Amino acid sequence: MPPTLNQLNIASAKAKCFHCGDTCNDSPIISGDKSFCCAGCRSVYELLNENNLCEFYKIEEHPGQKQNQTYYQGKFTYLDDELATSKLILFRDEEQSLVKFHLPLIHCSSCIWLLEHLPKLNKGILKSEVNFLKKELTIRYDHQVT
C-alpha cells in the first residue's frame, strides 16, 4: 500500500540534508536516495559526486554545515574589479597566475580538504594549498582557462 499524504509529510519533516545536516523543510529536494534542504546543497553534492570526491562526506559528521550567510552578502564584489584583483596576484606570467587569499573563518578539515581538491573541480586550477595556521589559501591557475 502506498504511503498516505500524512506519512509523506511526517517523513519530509524529519528528513536531514545529506550535505549540511540541516532539517529539510516540508518539500526536500530529492536526488537518488538522498534528501537536500536546498538546491545549493544538492548542487555541491552533485559536483563532488561527478568528480569522485564524495570522500568529503567521511571527514566529519556534517562537513557541509552552513555558516552565517548574511555576513558575506556583497563582501566579495570587489573581486569583480580588475584593479583589485591585480593587487591579489602574487605572480603572473604568460600562462599562470598565483594568488593568495586570507580565510579568517576556515575552521575544519572539510574546508581544507575541499580547497586542496580544487584542481579536480576546475581544470584551470593547477594547484591549491591551504596553510591552516596562517588561514591562507594559495592557488596557482592557468589564467587562460580560469
Q: How many domains make up the 3D coordinates?
A: 2
For this entry, what is the oligomeric state of its chains?
single chain
The main β sheet shows up as:
4 strands, antiparallel
The CATH class label of the largest domain is: Alpha Beta
Q: What is the first-to-last residue Cα distance? A: 53 Å
Helix-strand layout with pairing:
Layout (H helix, E strand, L loop, with lengths): L4 H10 L14 E3 L2 E3 L2 H12 L31 H7 E4 L3 E7 L6 H8 L1 H4 L3 E7 L4 E7 L4
Antiparallel strand pairs: 1-2, 3-4, 4-6, 5-6
Structure commentary:
- It is a single chain.
- The protein is an alpha+beta fold and 146 residues long.
- It folds into two domains: 64 residues, no CATH class; 80 residues, Alpha-Beta Plaits (2-Layer Sandwich), CATH 3.30.70.
- The protein contains five helices and six strands.
- The chain has a four-stranded antiparallel β-sheet with strand order 3-4-6-5. It has a two-stranded antiparallel sheet with strand order 1-2.
- The longest helix is centred in the first third of the chain and has 12 residues.
Comma- or semicolon-separated keywords:
2 domains, Alpha-Beta Plaits, 5 helices, disordered N terminus, 146 residues, two-stranded antiparallel sheet, 21% strand, 4-stranded antiparallel beta sheet, alpha+beta
Structure described in brief:
28% of the residues lie in helices and 21% in strands. The chain contains five helices and six strands.
